[in-house]
Design brief:
This protein is of the alpha+beta class. It has two domains: 29 residues, no CATH class; 170 residues, no CATH class.
Length: 271
């Protein structure tokens, strides 16, 4: 009995000692790791961002100001489209920036960078060329359902030949009718200070062969050739076969001795 009591006393002592040790144990400090990101709203950070943006803007400006485009003929343009150097043999051979459609059946022509689509108004054509009808024609009328040819002048010089059409039910002044044809030649080009570009980037005065035209526009519906001593003239006629009376909706290019001498585009729009 005494031995059992001693064993029990020893066990109680051990348990008490262990409990005392656990109560006095110190906890190890826990390191707190912050996941916070630097406050981008602080003045210091804002200043750094603004400085960085200023550098980028200045850098981009320099790139834009120094950008140039070299055309196929060697002409160099700046970012605004101005000619820096012109290596072409002829000014008319220079390619001009234009948005004229690649399809001539869209009936578009670019005049001084402005694209007109036929039919257009007389006032639209006048505004981009400064060319006018003769004073005697300004007060003339075209009957309903008719069209007529006319010439435009600038400083008393012939600069363009056109057709005016009246598709309304009443007689109309020439100036109130629609322009359904624009024709331009080397002769009129001498009298008009304008850049006129037709489909295929074609301009009067360009060096071009018949095969060159066909490579751009395809085979024409018709062609005419006239040959004399030291003179060869070929006219290629493209007609819009999808429109009734296709001959009234056509694109004509005349080449004389390897140079485009005359271009005309007509869209009477009778469908």
């Amino acid at each position: 009995m005494k031995k059992k009591f001693i064993k029990a006393l020893v066990c109680m002592t051990i348990v008490a000692t262990m409990m005392a040790g656990c109560g006095n144990e110190e906890k190890a400090p826990v390191e707190v790791v912050s996941n916070e990101v630097e406050d981008t709203d602080s003045e210091e950070v804002k200043n750094k961002i603004e400085e960085s943006e200023e550098v980028n803007l200045e850098s981009n400006t320099d790139v834009q100001n120094n950008s140039t485009v070299t055309l196929g003929d060697g002409t160099v343009l700046d970012a605004e489209g101005n000619v820096i150097s012109d290596n072409s043999e002829c000014a008319n051979d220079s390619l001009i920036s234009t948005t004229v459609s690649d399809n001539w059946k869209d009936y578009q022509v670019s005049i001084n960078g402005t694209v007109l689509t036929l039919p257009c108004t007389y006032s639209e054509l006048n505004s981009v060329t400064g060319a006018e009808l003769k004073s005697s024609e300004v007060k003339s009328y075209i009957q309903s359902g008719y069209y007529t040819t006319a010439s435009l002048y600038k400083d008393d010089s012939l600069v363009m030949y056109i057709e005016l059409s009246n598709s309304t039910e009443e007689d109309q002044l020439y100036t109130d009718c629609m322009v359904t044809k624009i024709g331009y030649s080397q002769y009129t080009d001498k009298n008009l200070d304008a850049d006129i570009v037709f489909c295929g980037n074609l301009q009067v005065g360009q060096t071009m062969t018949v095969d060159d035209i066909k490579a751009i526009l395809g085979e024409p519906q018709d062609s005419y050739e006239y040959t004399d001593t030291d003179y060869i003239s070929t006219t290629l006629r493209y007609e819009d076969e999808n429109i009734w009376m296709s001959s009234y909706n056509s694109y004509n290019i005349t080449i004389v001795n390897g140079v485009i001498d005359d271009i005309s585009l007509k869209h009477l729009a009778y469908e």
